[in-house]
Structures are given as structure tokens and as C-alpha cells.
């Protein structure tokens, strides 16, 4: 059974919220002329920010707790499977040592029983792997929802029209001014919200 771990690319998708638009503010900006107290020109770049998903994944406590939980479940499943496989191998080895001394009918019944056990072991391995993958998918969805909901509120509060995601080696952003990077602020907010949820 392959080790079930969180895939960074699938979690990075959780932060790829490229359409967090504050439509009501957009209408205000296009319909109302700028007053003396407001900035005369508002560039679109000032309304677009980005989050570094690599940093988010290493510093968001909810993600770290989730990874620890899933890693522990995966390790437990692997240990359990290894134990069952070793017990089966011992049975097979014991049969191989005795098979020449057993009557034909007993040999046939033992071989049938071992074949059934092998199939059960394979089914158990597949089911355990599928269960871990399903749980991982469910948890990824929860993670995505948490980040999406937070960023929606965050963007509206700050007046941002779009929040992009940046990930080294896997990003559509080739260059972005560091002044547009709101990762640290987002991580602080997410961790505070997660801490409040746990209480």
C-alpha cells in the first residue's frame, strides 16, 4: 500500500482563489468620481494581491495538524498491514515445510485456505488505501473551504478585487512585486481563526 500523504499540489489548489471579487466596491469605483480626499487614480494592481501557497502550507497550523493526523493514520494502517502480511508469510512458510508429508486432500484444502487468505489480504490492503484516500479528499475539501471563506472575508475587508496564489515552480505568476504579497497577514489571520475554532 502506498503511503498516503497530502499532496502539496492539491492543497495548493486550496489557495488558488483567483476570483475573489468585491463587486459592490467595483460598482462604487466605476460610478462615483474620486473626491479630493480619495486617491485620484486607483490602479488595478492595487486591488490584486497574492498568497505564497508554499509558505501558507508550512505555517498554517490547521494544515500542520491535519498532516500530522493523516500521517499517523497512514502509519497505523501500514503497520497493521505489515503485521498481517508477516503472519501470512509465516503460514505459507510453515505449509511449504510440511507439504511433502501431508496427504493430498489436506494439501489441497490448505492451499485453498492460503489462497483465500491472500485474496483477503489484498482486498484489505486496497480497502485501507481507498479509505485513507477518501479521508484525505474530504479533509482537502474542508481545508479549501476554510481558506476560501477566510480569503473572501479578508479581500472584502481590504478592498482587494483578486487574490492570486504563487507557488515556486508551479505558478502562473512569473513576477509580482513583493508589496502585493499578503501571505504573512493571511497566515496570521487563518491561525487566529483556527485557534478560536478549537476553543
From TrEMBL:
Transmembrane segments annotated in the record for this chain: none
GO molecular function, one term: unfolded protein binding
BP-aspect Gene Ontology terms: protein stabilization
Keywords, alphabetical: Signal
Signal sequence bounds: 1-24
Bias kind Polar residues: ranges: 94-103
Region of interest called Disordered, as start-end residue ranges on this chain: 94-116
CC terms in the record's Gene Ontology section: cytosol
SUPFAM superfamilies, alphabetized: OmpH-like (SSF111384)
Family named by the database record: Belongs to the Skp family.
Name of the molecule in the record: Outer membrane protein
Amino acid at each position: 500500500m502506498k503511503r498516503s500523504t497530502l499532496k502539496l499540489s492539491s492543497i495548493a489548489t486550496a489557495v488558488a482563489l483567483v476570483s475573489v471579487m468585491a463587486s459592490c466596491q467595483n460598482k462604487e469605483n466605476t460610478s462615483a468620481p474620486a473626491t479630493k480626499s480619495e486617491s485620484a487614480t486607483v490602479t488595478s494592481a492595487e486591488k490584486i494581491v497574492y498568497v505564497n501557497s508554499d509558505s501558507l502550507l508550512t505555517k498554517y497550523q490547521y494544515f500542520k495538524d491535519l498532516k500530522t493526523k493523516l500521517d499517523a493514520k497512514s502509519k497505523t494502517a501500514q503497520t497493521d498491514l505489515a503485521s498481517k502480511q508477516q503472519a501470512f508469510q509465516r503460514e505459507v512458510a510453515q505449509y511449504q515445510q510440511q507439504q511433502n508429508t501431508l496427504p493430498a486432500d489436506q494439501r489441497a484444502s490448505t492451499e485453498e485456505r492460503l489462497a483465500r487468505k491472500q485474496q483477503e489480504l489484498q482486498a484489505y490492503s486496497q480497502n485501507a488505501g481507498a479509505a485513507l484516500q477518501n479521508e484525505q479528499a474530504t479533509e482537502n475539501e474542508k481545508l479549501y473551504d476554510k481558506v476560501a471563506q477566510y480569503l473572501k472575508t479578508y479581500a472584502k475587508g481590504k478592498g482587494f478585487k483578486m487574490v492570486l496564489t504563487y507557488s515556486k515552480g508551479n505558478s502562473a505568476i512569473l513576477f509580482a512585486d513583493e508589496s502585493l504579497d499578503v501571505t504573512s497577514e493571511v497566515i496570521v489571520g487563518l491561525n487566529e481563526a483556527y485557534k478560536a475554532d478549537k476553543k
